[in-house]
Request: fold
Amino acid sequence: MRYLRLFLRKTSISLSSSMQFRGNFILSVISGILEVIVAMLFFKILYFNGLYIEGWSYYEVLFLIGTSKLINTLYTMTLGGLQDIARQVERGTFDFYLVKPVSPLLNISMRGANLNDFFQLAISLFILFLAMANIQITYHLYSVLLYILLVIIGVYLRWIITFIISVSSFWIIRVYAFQALFYDFLQIQRLPLKIFKGTIRFFFLRIFPILLIANLPVRAFLNYNVIIYLPSLVSGVLVSGTMSIYLWRKAIRKYTSTGS
Amino acid sequence: MKKYVIWCKNLILVILQYRLNFFLSFLSVIVPLIIQISLWKAIFGFTGIDSIKGYTLGNLIVYYVLANWLATALGPSMRMEVVSDISTGGLNHYLIKPVNYLICRSLDILVGNLLFSVTGLIIIIPIAIFLFKEYFIGIFSVNCLYGLPFVFLAFILSIEISTILSLMSFFIDYTTSVNKIQFLIMPFLTGQLLPIELFPEKIKTIIQILPFQYLVLKPVQIFMGKISPANITKDILIMTLWIALFAILTYSMWHSGMRRYNAYGG
Reply:
């Protein structure tokens, strides 16, 4: 309850401050729309040229893009402040979080939702409805409920993987290239997992389960069997979860303040 | 001249100080490459085709290796040092020194990109050739003679576009979002994301009018022997015109920006 109040308070501050910079807000909305358009256009061109991914129609791929955006937006709205760890550690100002009477990890993660986040959420839902209107399947209530549950798990996975990357800033002070690399890898979450084979597939299913983040809810929604991915999901959550707890304990001991 | 040589030496030292960051940035070339190759291998496997619009799977692999390397070395981006200098008054330090600010910041881009592309040549291209040598046969021969001077001009064009993007911070406050937008659309316009032959006619025409194709698409096509020497000469002429046009634009933006500059803080 305390964390919910903290989140709501941060959201309230974030909403009022985002309206102060209207130009930035408009451009952020435009960039969110462009992000989706570029992804849609890429696949539209492939399908326009008669190229396809087996078992995936264009609108199913679109549904995957929408789900990926939905998960990323929900993550940004709720726990998206995690990227700030690198900056705080580099400046030696992480103490501000350590001395507060709440979990420093949750406190830094919850940056509060801003107005742009709500627009991005609306864009994600628009993409999902557009895709749904063109996919020829029968929708079941249990598929929808499973989809919602797996989206929540997707947000958790996104958070935990981001955490593992961000926490490396306690050891490597200039971690930006490492983070950029991670964001490159995150792009694969909006690609059908059927594309990947061998070591890449194993790594991104079992160790860093980026491929499961959006693919699993989409498969559930489209009435495909998701039980076969349960071992991957469990091992991914366990491996990355255990790794994150271990790294966090080590990182806190490693941190050096600047005395600010 | 000597002061700029010292400036370049210092730049190299700063870049190499954060060696891990520098070498990790090479992985940011390899990661999209892995994704693109996996995607195209899967598509060729699923559709059972041998080639698409003149590109075999091998051609596409070569295309993406070169395109990713060139995009990282030549891809324009807003220079955050310039944005910060303008918004926080750091520019004052340069204005009172006997150096030309635009030359110094252009050298920043040139040295960083050159260091990156040369190291890239030494690391990424040999690895790619080792992995996909059958596809690279015949690529690095005569075509290099045309490709390398073209890449040199593309360097100048890229520096100008980056400078123009950075100087926008004289006129607008919200540069981060502008930078994000250019990061999203540039891979499309430069040809990094897809070869131009795959685009529908209307989009193809837009890309062919804009100058961004000279940064990735055209050099890659030259290296792959897809453009005749006569057309290369024509492209060089057009690119030179774009370089001249952007030089005028950079100069005008700098002068009109300096009239607006308030020299806060510093």
User: Anything to note?
Assistant: The interface with chain A takes residues 18, 20-22, 24-25, 27-28, 31-32, 34-35, 38-39, 42-43, 46-47, 49, 52-53, 172-174, 176-178, 180-181, 184-185, 187-188, 193-194, 198-200 of chain B (CB under 8 Å). The longest strand of chain B covers residues 51-52.
